[in-house]
Amino acid sequence: MSRKTAELITWHLKCRVDLEVLIHPAQSAAWKHFDEVHPSFACHLRNVHLGLGTDEFNPWSHSSTSYSCWPIFIVVHNLHPKMCMRPEFTFLTLVIVGPKSLIKNIDVFLHPLIDDLKQLCLSRVETYDNFRKENFIMRAMLMWTITDFPGYGMVFGWSTHGRLACSYCMEMTHAFYLNMVAKYPSLIVIGNFFLRHTHTY
Question: What pLDDT, in 10s, does the model give residues 71-91?
C-alpha cells in the first residue's frame, strides 16, 4: 500500500458526523448497521469497504445487433468521495461478453470474483502500511451493489417483474391486475406502501 493511499484509507472516519446532507457512504444507515453487526471488522479502520457495480450495454450502439456486455467494477468506499470514482481506485474485475443476454447465468461468471471476495473477508492478509511504517492485517468486505433494477434482478437472481418484483415487500406487495386491458393484463404495484399518510405522493 502506497504512502498516500495508506494515509487516505481511514478518511471515512473523519466524515462520521451527523449532518443533514449525506456526503459519504460512511454516514449511511447501511454502513452504521454493518458496523454494529460486525464490530470486529469495524474496529480496524484500515479494513476496506467495497462496492460492486455493473450494467448491461451493447458496445455496438445498435439495438438491432444482438450482443451483450457486462463490465463488473469494484469500487473502494473508504476514500474521499472525489477519489472513490477515480480510475486508480475503480477496478475492472470482469468483462462478461456474448452474443446473447446472460438471462440467469451471470452467477456462473461471478463465482471466481465471489471466491476472491470471500478470501479477502474471511482470511487475514498481511499488508504493509507505508504511511505508518508498520504491517497490519487487512480485510475487505463487499458492502453493496450498484445496479439498475433489471441489473439487480440479474445479479441476485430475483424476478424484477410480476407481482413479487419488490424484494423488500415480497408477499406484502399491494398489487392488482387490470383485467379489461385489450392485449395482456397489466399489473399495478402500489409503490407508496411505506410512505406516511401525509406524504405528497
Answer: 999 998 888 888 888 888 889
